[in-house]
Each structure stands twice: as C-alpha cells, then as structure tokens.
Design goal:
Blueprint (H helix, E strand, L loop, with lengths): L10 H10 L11 E2 L2 H10 L7 E5 L5 H9 L2 E6 L2 H10 L6 E5 L7 H4 L1 H6 L5 E5 L5 H9 L7 E7 H7 L8 H9 E9 L4 E2 L6 E8 L10 H12 L6 H9 L3 H10 L13 H10 L4
Parallel strand pairs: 2-3, 2-5, 3-4, 5-6
Antiparallel strand pairs: 1-8, 6-9, 7-9
Bound molecules: S-adenosylmethionine.
C-alpha cells in the first residue's frame, strides 16, 4: 500500500522543535520538513555512496543531516541561524565526519568549505538541501557558477520554481536557461505544503540537477551568452527583433542580419529559443 506522505510525520522533528525551542523564522525560510517519506526520497535521489562528500545548505534541526551523515563519507552543513549552531554541533559531536559551519552560504565558496575533501579526492561533491526559498535562485547561481561546482544537486524548492526550471522551449525563462546551461534538471517528487512545519503557502518539489561535464555552449563565455539571453528576455513577450535591439543597444538592421544568419525567425519570442539557438545567435552577433 502506498503511504500518504503526511501520515509519515516524523515525531522526531516535532520533538526537535520542542527540544530546540525554536520559533521558526520566516525571514530565514525556516519550513522544517516533517515528512519522513519526503526526507528519504531526497536522500535516495542523491544516490549517496560511502565515499561521497555532501554539502548541505541550511541543516535547520538536523533531520536531513542525520540521514546524509548515515550514508555519505563526509557532510559539511552550512547554517545561518546562530540559534541552531551549538545545538547542531552538540547533536553531531559523535559524528566527526559531519561538520556544522556557521555562515551564509552565499558568501562561502564550496571550494573553500570542502577544501580538505576536494584536495584528497577528484570525485567532486554533491549538494543535498531543503533550500531556504527566499534565496533559491541566488543559491543555484552560486553553486552552478562556482569555481568548483557540484557534480549533482538534489534540492527542495517551490513546486512552481521547479516546474519553471524544467520548462521546455516555448516556456523557457532566464532562470530555466541559466540552470539548463549548466545542468539537466528533473523533478523527482512533488511534496505538499502540509509536509512542512510551519506549512508554507505553496507546494514544493524535489529537484535533481545533473551537472553537465561542460556548459551547454562551450565556445562562448557565460558572460557574453547571458548578456544576449538577458537582452532577449528584457522585454516581456516582445519579439526578438525588438527586445534584442533595445537590450544590446544595437540597430535593428544588425539584429535582423544576425537573426537571419542564425536562422531564427525575428518574430519569435525569447522563451521559444533552445540553448543551441542562443549559441547560434551569439555567434552571429560575434559576441564572445
Ligand atoms: N534542512 C532542514 C529541514 O529540511 O527541515 C531545514 C530547511 S529550512 C527550509 C532552510 C534552512 O536554511 C533553515 O534552517 C535556515 O535557517 C537556513 N538558512 C537560511 N538562509 C541561509 C543562508 N543564507 N545560508 C545558510 N543557511 C540558511
């Protein structure tokens, strides 16, 4: 019989909430995951091996961290909330392979956080996290554009954000292009709002990102590529011939001939272009 996820509420989490006497802070995106089925699903989606190094963002009460520490060789968990640090460190004191770091993930480079592990092995690292939703895009950008990006990320995000990231040409956005440039995204499971304490306003989804060995377009710098992409998306629902001209400060005639060389109909809109077509367009515009 399949279990209703909300029937598998972890008493442990509620005990942790009481034990930690934590009043969840909305400003830090603190929606703790109660549902053990969802917690297990996140861990399973990361295909963890005893040799893996995992970076967790926002361990919160440590429920996901405990599962990660039981399967991975090393876990570094970065938590911003100073109320949680000593409690987490005490809870993981008997697990020296699980390290709690106090800080803001957006100011910490993965290559520095994991310097010891990365210097000992070329296997790279995985990110596994129930993300604080107020910084979802910033965290994804921070990880995907890092000097040493993860090889895999399994992250809980808002369902609508997960769907936007996984969109196909026709419904693409800057967020989707930015993620798909570096990774192949897939929704593993939708998780209802009631699976969290406190329940957020919207449902969530577990998203798996398999990092590409190289970005989707390799002969153009990410800076130049995204300058053109941002220009294309700059004016909502406008035809490319108009949005690109305004965004890049180029005359319409130059945009027209670049679109012709790239074999892209000038009346198309940015959300319809494949990553390959953005690459063709960059080449035709001679941006590097
Ligand atoms: N992992 C726990 C769970 O699954 O129940 C908590 C997840 S909760 C959605 C997000 C966590 O991220 C919170 O513990 C919050 O304090 C932490 N957090 C918020 N902003 C952060 C930041 N900039 N850097 C690191 N952690 C952050």
């Amino acid at each position: 019989m399949t279990q209703n996820p909300i029937q598998s509420v972890s008493q442990n989490v509620m005990e942790q909430v009481q034990r930690y006497q934590i009043d969840p802070k909305r400003s830090l995106g603190q929606n703790f995951l109660l549902d053990t089925t969802a917690l297990d699903k996140i861990v399973a989606a990361a295909d963890l091996l005893p040799t893996d190094t995992v970076l967790e963002i926002g361990p919160g009460l440590g429920t996901l961290t405990t599962r990660l520490a039981s399967q991975a060789g090393h876990v570094v968990a970065v938590e911003l909330d100073d109320r949680l640090i000593e409690l987490l460190r005490a809870d993981f004191a008997d697990k020296p392979h699980a390290q709690i770091v106090h800080g803001d993930i957006l100011t910490l480079a993965p290559s520095e956080l994991l310097a010891d592990q990365l210097s000992q092995s070329t296997a790279g690292y995985k990110v596994v996290a129930n993300l604080p939703y107020y910084i979802t895009s910033a965290v994804l950008r921070h990880l995907l554009e890092a000097a040493v990006p993860p090889k895999l990320a399994v992250v809980m995000v808002q369902k609508e954000v997960a769907e936007r990231i996984c969109a196909q040409p026709g419904d693409l956005s800057i967020l989707a292009v930015s993620v798909q440039f570096y990774a192949v995204p897939r929704i593993v499971q939708v998780v209802p709002a009631a699976a969290f304490y406190p329940a957020p306003k919207v449902d969530s989804a577990v998203l798996r990102l398999d990092l590409r060995p190289q970005p989707a377009v390799t002969d153009i710098s990410p800076q130049a590529f995204f300058r053109v992409v941002r220009a294309g998306f700059g004016q909502k629902r406008k035809q490319l011939i108009n949005s690109l001209g305004a965004g890049l400060g180029l005359p319409k005639s130059a945009i027209q001939s670049a679109l012709t060389v790239a074999a892209i109909d000038p009346t198309r809109r940015a959300e319809t272009l494949t990553l390959d077509e953005w690459g063709q367009l960059c080449r035709a515009l001679a941006v590097r």
